[in-house]
Amino acid sequence: MIPIALPLLDEAEAEAAHAAVLSGWVSQGPQVEAFEREFAALVGAPHACAVSNCTSALHLALKALDVGPGDEVITVSHSFIATANCIRYCGARPVFVDIGAEGYNIDPERVAAAITPRTRAIVAVHQMGMPCDLAALVEIADRGGLALVEDAACAAGSQINIDGDWEPIGRPRGDIACFSFHPRKVITTGEGGMITTRDPALDRRFRLLRQHGMSAPDTVRHASPTVIFEDYLMVGFNYRMTDIQAAIGRGQLKRLPELVARRRTLAARYGEMLAPLGLGLPGEPAWARSNWQSYCVRLPDEVDQREVMQRMLDRGVATRRGIMCAHREAPFANGAARADLRLSERAQDRCILLPLYAQMSEDDQRHVAAALKAELRLQA
Ligand SMILES: *Cc1c(COP(=O)(O)O)cnc(C)c1O
């Protein structure tokens, strides 16, 4: 059986978790602090704040920006549902725009067209690890006085070329970037998230909000020779990462360059193997380098998506359908007038994601390609 994804964890992470367990400090503590420092250095961000997952990261990002009832936030429907949910958590209204004609990312022109006097922020997703057009989005956000949040859940290790230089996703170019360490992503802590920003005031708000609005965290009180009474400055949350997770994350960070290089090799090989099959294959714009968190192919019009996926599963190959559309799910299917989301719907209905993980062999990939080819021929 070839799974859709497989995290790469070994004795190094197991020993790190072991040491954290025996250290006597298992909630947010010195490991979280070190993980934040190392992640910030890796993406070139002045500030990185670890949280319990990327959904809580996105929630805190919008909270820290004071997004609330009456506000509109422009984003894609074509994303994991957490992207849209975080807007609703704040009582604001998600305004969905379609993806571009090439690839699976938000269309900056449609963002510009969707701006109203109520628009407060844009949440732009680097879908499946492929950077979205940040240069265009930053300009639109600046012109409109809007905040730009990057949903970089899938994009640790992806790069973008702006102003002639390659830089990692997460510096960030927007105001805030949010990462996920769920096992489906390129590096994992089981559950986990990270928020990066260049703005020290935002970073301070993330740190308060993730921990009940507490002025002096337990780590500070624990280390203090004098008695400290903490204050609670705002309605916060408990969105902490544990030191056990952070210890695992530090091990994963060391692997990130190697994991991304490996995934790029695998994606390039898929490109060669699948070229003769008449599929729509994913490609990088000249200014983007994906970490290939997922490899998404578009099926020819005449074949049945579910049938292809079922027959591949029968042949021992797990796949997933194209990225979901939030506006088709109960919480967002409210019949409200919305922009044309035809490209998003087509991508969900016509695409499948193929297995991709670092441990995959060339034989595994050949097996995937053969299973897909056999099924396409059958349906042709
Ligand atoms: C996975 C994912 C999330 C949610 O991440 P969690 O860490 O599981 O909360 C949000 N947005 C996108 C685009 C994702 O792929």
From TrEMBL:
The active site is at residue 185. Keywords: Pyridoxal phosphate. One of its GO terms (molecular function) is pyridoxal phosphate binding. The keyword Chaperone does not apply. The modification N6-(pyridoxal phosphate)lysine is found at residue 185. It comes from the Bacteria. InterPro entries: DegT/StrS_aminotransferase, PyrdxlP-dep_Trfase, PyrdxlP-dep_Trfase_major, PyrdxlP-dep_Trfase_small. SUPFAM superfamilies: PLP-dependent transferases. Pfam families: DegT_DnrJ_EryC1. GO terms for biological process: polysaccharide biosynthetic process. Belongs to the DegT/DnrJ/EryC1 family. This is dTDP-4-amino-4,6-dideoxygalactose transaminase. It comes from Rhodoblastus acidophilus (Rhodopseudomonas acidophila).
